[in-house]
Amino acid sequence: NAGVTQTPKFQVLKTGQSMTLQCAQDMNHNSMYWYRQDPGMGLRLIYYSASEGTTDKGEVPNGYNVSRLNKREFSLRLESAAPSQTSVYFCASSDGQLNTIYFGEGSWLTVV
Amino acid sequence: EDQVTQSPEALRLQEGESSSLNCSYTVSGLRGLFWYRQDPGKGPEFLFTLYSAGEEKEKERLKATLTKKESFLHITAPKPEDSATYLCAVGAGSYQLTFGKGTKLSVIP
User: Biggest alpha carbon distance in chain A?
Assistant: First the structure.
């Protein structure tokens, strides 16, 4: 009954460091997403993968890269972290376009 | 550009005091309106999807309704465990949802 699992839960980075957030879902969903959530703002889409083998930019893709490793896994990479990337990151999945999106528990990232 | 505005930003209710949360939206061709609940330090938890004006859905003390311009989340006789931030999102034919900033609900015993 795991649903969407993200790692790590918490991470502190120095400016310029790189890191990868990992996400896996066990619901056999086709589509996966990465969102960020900042105080006073709604959830904003960074990248999504409509199906295995495809990825597309969302609203705020700059500074990020993604990889759809297989149907289950979708990773988000910060190549050179900046303080503006301090945020809570949520991975999510759905069975297709505009079907209900299910979220993971979040990854708290601080860039100093 | 799709827009979602939720009001009020925060709402304090006494236990048992019913009320409604509002989600106003502007979107070109609504394909779905979604309500989520988010507890502190957790990811959003799905509540409802509404697809067309006039549609209503209920779950325990919550009832969601949809018109052509807004959606309401009615909370009947709330309990302290209903305290959370409630998020509204709209989708218009792509994989991208536009989220509102949420309404933080506090239910006081």
Answer: 37
Q: What is the DSSP letter of A98?
A: T
Choose the mutation target among A101, A102, A107 for the interface with B, i.e. most B CBs under 10 Å. A101
Q: Which residue has the higher pLDDT, B1 or B26?
A: B26
**DSSP readout, B3-26?**
EEEEE-SEEEEETT--EEEEEEEE
- Strand runs (DSSP E) across chain A, as ranges? 4-7, 10-13, 19-25, 31-37, 44-49, 56-57, 64-68, 74-78, 87-94, 102-103, 107-111
Q: Which residues pair with B3 in a beta bridge?
A: B26
Smallest Cβ distance to B42: which of A43, A45, A105? A105
Could you report the per-residue pLDDT of B48-102, keeping only the tens digit for each? 999 999 999 999 999 999 999 999 999 999 999 999 999 999 988 777 889 999 9
